[in-house]
Amino acid sequence: MASLLRLEVNGQERELPVPGTDASVLDLLASLDQHPKTVAVEVNRELVPRARFGDTSLHDGDRVEIVRFVQGG
């Protein structure tokens, strides 16, 4: 049975369906259709290294900031 994880993402309240007991930063990015190589992620004001997206767990009430890299010319 899925549960809902309540997060603040870029200043907006969001609910993330969680199939098990927890979700990772990578799960959140997938639910938002964000490619992990094109973003930087901060959880509770701490930068999460890209190599740790899959094993960094999210918890109810976490504050997540996602910054997308944009190329210009």
Provide structural commentary.
The chain has 73 residues and is mostly beta strands. The protein has one domain: Ubiquitin-like (UB roll) (Roll), CATH 3.10.20.30. 10% of the residues lie in helices and 44% in strands. It contains one helix and seven strands. The protein has one helix at residues 25-31, and strands spanning 3-9, 12-18, 23-24, 39-43, 46-48, 57-58, 63-68. The chain has a five-stranded mixed beta sheet, with helices on one face. Strands 3-6 form a two-stranded antiparallel ribbon.
| CATH top level class name | Alpha Beta
Gross morphology is globular
Walk across the major sheet and give the strand order.
2-1-7-4-5
Low-pLDDT runs of 5+ residues are: none
Structural class determined from secondary elements? mainly beta
Compressed to H and E, one letter per element, the order equals EEEHEEEE
Number of strands: 7
Biggest β-sheet strands, sense, barrel: 5 strands, mixed
Q: Write the CATH homologous superfamily.
A: Beta-grasp domain
Structurally, how many domains make up the residues? Answer: 1
Examine the coordinates and then state which fold CATH places here, giving the name of the CATH topology.
Answer: Ubiquitin-like (UB roll)
Write down the overall mean pLDDT. 93
- Share of helix among residues? under 10%
Distance between the termini: 47 Å
Radius of gyration: 12 Å
Q: Architecture in CATH?
A: Roll
Tally of separate helices: 1
